[in-house]
Amino acid sequence: MRPTGALHLGHLVGVLTQWATYCDTADAYFEIADIHAYTTEFDDPKKIRDSRNDMVAVWLAAGVDPGKSTIFLQSGVPEISELHVLLSMITPVAWLERVPTYKGQIEALGSQIATYGFLGYPLLQLCDVAAFRGEFVPVGKDQQAHLEFGREVVRRFNYLYGDGQALLVEPQATLSEFPEVPGTDGRKMSKSYDNAIFIADDEETTTKKVRSMITDPQKIRRGDPGRPEVCPVFALWRFVNPLRLDGIAEGCRSGRLGCVQDKTEFAEELNAYLRPIRERYAVYRDDPGSVERIVEEGTARAREVASGVLAGVKTAMRLT
Ligand code: SF4
Q1: Which of 120, 126, 210, 273 has minimal CB crowding within 10 Å?
Q2: CA angle, 113 as apex, 110 and 115 as ends, to 5°?
Q3: pTM for this entry
Q4: Spacing, Cα 250 to ligand 1 middle (Å)
Q5: ∠ CA(165), CA(148), CA(142), 5° rounding?
Q6: Residue 133 φ/ψ region, left for φ over 0, alpha for ψ in the -120 to 50 degree band, beta for the rest
Q7: CB-ligand 1 contact for 215 (6 Å cutoff)
Q8: Residue 33 in contact with residue 80, Cβ under 8 Å?
Q9: Which atom of ligand 1 is nearest the CA belonging to 248?
């Protein structure tokens, strides 16, 4: 995850709750992708630096367990960058140019992001995984092409230097159902759309944001039949208290439930849901030293593994 600003409800219910489960089911690595952050935020290094600890504080508050996983800083594992340089020697530019997000992102964000590093972004992503012999990567549908590209590079490497062995591991996608979480205006929750409910928000701010949420535009007053399937408040109930979905859908459709009442109840439930996470977050936020220690320890562990993999790569390439 790139440290590029405050984390919100979309990160929490869309990604972090799943990450927390991986701590019990896998030898999981979670990367603070600070070098990746420069692909789009290269003119704001302070933001990247300032976001780092805060982002990890939210991970920990959400249940990512550093005792059962490895939380590491990408720039603290230079073996990843060295592997990136070495694999770049065998990566055809055309393979990178045809990754769909390359052109799509440039169209969306402007040509100023079309740097050498941005073109190579999927290769660096591969190295984030290959440096640890990562077998599975939870990806959303939009990232599948990156992984497919990465697998091709690994195959090429193994073919050129493997001497019949799979020196690097071809990572596989575990297609995660990363649900799209709507923001207060109904679009995907995102800091850049100014529609996010942040973990760091206080309860009053959260309540105000929920009150300002759009609902079904056809439901103007209580009594009007509504359509929960088009309403972002209803979509958020699904994450916060799915047990209430049936009752709310029925009340909305019949007109017995008004939007003001629904939003008032939802704000209360959302604050109750976030309260323990916010309390844990505050503990880590106010003790940056403990977060730094967790990251330092994880980064040291990650370096140990990555340096072994890099040594194998250099030997295979006759660089040692
Ligand atoms: S009653 Fe609730 S679910 Fe129905 S439109 Fe209003 S806010 Fe949405």
Answers
A1: 273
A2: 140
A3: 0.93
A4: 10
A5: 155
A6: left
A7: yes
A8: no
A9: 3
